Fold these 3 entries.
Entry 1:
Amino acid sequence: MLDVQFFLTFAMLIPIVQMIDLKRLKNRIDWFCANRINAFSPTISPAPKSEQRNEIESIYEGVRYFFGRGVTEIVVQRKYMGSYCDIYLQKNLAETYFVSRNGYMVSHVDLDQARQACNALHSRFDWTNLQTVIIQSEMMPWSALGQSLIDNEFGGYLNAHQNHYNHLSQSGLYEKIAAVKQSQPYREYMDYRGEHTGKELKEHFPAHIIRQYESLTAFRALDLPDYRKYIEIYATQLDHFGQTGDIYFKPFNIHKKVFADGSEQIVNDNLSYREINGDECLCLPTGNEEEMNRSVKRVYEWFAQLEAENEEGIVIKPRQAFIKNLPPAFKVRNNKYLVMIYGVDFQTNYDYNFQRRKISRKLECSINDWMLNWDMLNVKYTDIDKENFYLKNLVFDRIMGEQVESALDIRL
């Protein structure tokens, strides 16, 4: 049964809870505890934009955000394009399990293959007194969990634009429109339109001519060479990140170590990346303005290198993983990758997208999620069960946060 505090929490959030099947919600929380899940992935905000640098996701603004809030050391990691996955690595590798971004046990992949993919990671630890390690990671490739999304949404979108381009380039439509606009009747209409009132225009031309010519005037033809270029960029990104293959992992942070005697260590250090991942990452000082500027320069250099290698981008984090009222990280994705996220008109409509980009609510959700994750991790792994109402209340709060996040721009 749910405790009194749980019902009080429900009552306070009735408007949101009414949107959810209460029985399913309770079952999800019970299931979360029954499966001994100790953490819940936060949403990650993009870095703030920079008006001065015309950057929709700005390295400079991301680093300055942390610097301005007292962070004296940052860790910068490659951003992996996979599916977020917490690894509950066990001393007995066969007992290892995996948890998705939304706190569900990963079960619809080959779990034996997934566990075998953790062999090298498992060998990095001395298991003499160690029982469990909870590790943040990306399950790779993206297609391992996202194949239907790749095929149905991303692939379908690409196919629609390829067909659209082929029609426009082969149908002669643009040439016909251009011919009409060069015709004498159209030019006479436009000259008259520029010198007379709307009433006089209606008196001088038949209504069907006005409708036709006004439609032609309002029509904005695509720049076909540009359109083709951005379709190709989109296709290249999708082909690169949508590759299929055997499951492997890119771990990037150790959440917690649980020892055989029941004691625990919350690692709270984003540089734990180097304990579990052989890929390059940067650890840079931001103790003063001069250090920050040097570090920013180094991050830009590395970002350019990764972009040239067709990587998605980077993640900027404080060295200390959990700091009260700070987000876990900022992501910075390159503009070619953002074509895949925003669509083939991203660059064409860059100014529009730039002005509309607002991260304040996403950032607020990220901070709230991360603080809840800290509270969850402080619940002892051995104390997780369906009777732990403190944990159940935390999980409930986090699920309510999902409802808020579902209303945000999914491209952030």
Entry 2:
Amino acid sequence: MNRSSFNLRSFNLRSFSRRSFLNWANLAGLAAALPFVPAFGDITDEAKSQASTAGPTTTKLASPESILLKDYRPQSIYKIPVTEIPKAKFPVIDMHTHPYAKTEQEIEAWVRNMDEVGIEKAMILTMTTGAAFDEIHRKYAKYPERFETWCGFDFAGYDKPGFGAAAVKELERCKQAGARGVGEIHDKGKGLRSGKSNALGMHPDDPRMDSLLEKCGELGMPISLHVADPIWMYQKMDNHNDGLMNAYQWRLDNQPDVVGLSGMVDIFERTLARHRNTTFIACHFMNLDYDLARLGEVMERNPNLYADISARYAETAPIPRFAAQFYAKHADRLVYGTDMGVDKSMYRVTFRILESLDEHFYEVEQFSYHWSLNGLGLSDGILKPVYHDNAAGLLAARRL
């Protein structure tokens, strides 16, 4: 795609899946700053049909010897129960969303979707500061019972002596302007990023971050921190890579000077120990969805840590029994999140995975092709804290 010829006003959101949007954002140089933006309302049946049957671009039937993994669209043949869950079993607080809705009408449509599926409130992780944050907050502040806006960090001058004072001042200003937390802050191994503000080579445990992270604790502002990326992106892109269908597009194995996943987890844990009075929420299971036992150990060592479950449903649903055991053991430290848009169908996919005992199903419209998925069948005693109570307690404990 020619970047210069792209017209955002003519961009048809309904025709894009999560993968195709991210692919466009990467081409346009915006992947670092923009989250996925879905259509408002559910995808039409016709669009779903087109998406599920999408394969190689050629009109000829592909030979089995030439079908690419990225074009694989399996359909389960098993005649087994299919559970539809139109509304979550308990009220839900979504701890990981972004400012997808840009207009008052779109925000109203999102609220209607939330009402229909049982989302009580959503955290809007803006990743912004300054005028950009103020504008987003102004729009969502009309619904104070349904949305909270969280700001980002301003890393300007991070590589100059004296960094910190100005960033802290802007954080305090954002708090006064209405920010209730901070996020989503990224470090995928090359340094911190908050939307379009970058700090190449500076990680969360860097002493230059001390004043900012300590101030968050003083102000009662939790930090939503995304470290690393799924393990498959770091592994060799060969026929042994279990997640090759997604890893190749977002590969990190060929990136110079990138801290690996395990190293980023170590950095995060040093940060937690360094700032005990600050609450952190690790996005996406801290990308330890492949090693939940290690995540459990990190949480046990660090009482100031929660983990959100956003955008890793397709990575944990293939291991339903072990994942369910993990949820049971750490039900007091996990919080619900989506990070996948505003569609009712998207929310319902997450409910099906968490609540049902369905087996061997695919959700290619939502996740593209991953592995076959399974319901975790979580009990009420696990669902209620994960859906709502943990987040409610975390939010209520903040200083106003």
Entry 3:
Amino acid sequence: MQIHFIVGRIPRKFFTQTTIDSLTQLGVKCLPFWGFWGKMTRKTRRVGIVLFQLGGPDTLEAIEPFLYNLFCDPDIIDFPFARIGRKALAKLISTTRARKVQHHYATIGGGSPIRKHTESQARALEAELCAQGIDAQCFVAMRYWHPFTREAVGKLRAAECDEVVLLPLYPQYSSTTTGSSLNEWRRLFSDEVPVHCVEAFYRNTIYLDALVEKIDEALSRFPAPHRPELVFSAHSIPMSVIEKGDPYRRQIEETVHLLMERGGWSNAHRLCYQSKVGASHWLQPSLHQTIKQLSAERTREVCVVPVAFVSDHVETLGEIDHEAREQARRLGINQFEMSAGLNDSPKFIEALSQIVQQALRQEVHSLISTYTTGRQLAAPEYASAAGLD
């Protein structure tokens, strides 16, 4: 797990009063806070945990503005004079793409469930931490739809938290996800409180066990659980991002290796990528190419594992469990199963709790930059991203 620390204009007093007492649970209990006239107002430090996700449109009508927000992101579209042309280009792309992706959301009930799942994760994590004696409050910050990062910042300030943990819910780091979310946070928040940042958690053993649990559940639906081929599917990103040093592909491949080792399965397995946009070169092979290949190899039982997502949403429920399932049926694959999202499973919440605790055990001691330039599409890729190619 990669943990970095951010300190913005923090007074010297924080360096002595935020040190975690190893004799208390997680060290969140420290010197009492005193109000006016010497009245003690709080005995424990209040920890704010911000859970980041990209978000998703909650109605069909929200698809276009959601996409507009996405393509207005400077970490998505960046080019000379972008401040002048970005909004017009985002409008063109979102209008065109909205028509193309509307059916994906229609097949899963007319909107993304990612907000519901993320808020459930936040409530469960808060309850878990509170049960361990931590005065914790969790906040959800979506990058491109409600509740936006700005809304989370307002709620965090109102809660008067003494320390903050930034927890992007992307197990593997990419500038296109974690980087973009943290860039937005940096633009909006520079308060004088210690801030810990978790950049990746794909190596956390409890997180891996939570995934193994879901994979075992899916395999149990086959007559012979050792027989199906395991297909790990991750969201694709442009190769241009990888070539600039983004660690996403390496971390995805490592995740698959760790899962196969931890799960102890003898099943054949392979890795593919999904959700590619446009004609430019993205991580391959695609999920659809992989299903075609499996059919050509006369594989008749397939179990798809969404390996880069922690919640069920349009990429799992629509792309995998609907489109890919139908493709597999047409190509003669007899049984197609998908492992369920982690959502608010107790094991996953236990993992998040441990990740937060590990972040809190680190002493805030210096200013360390955690932000990298996000995805910057080269000019020829704009038409592809808009679906105009």
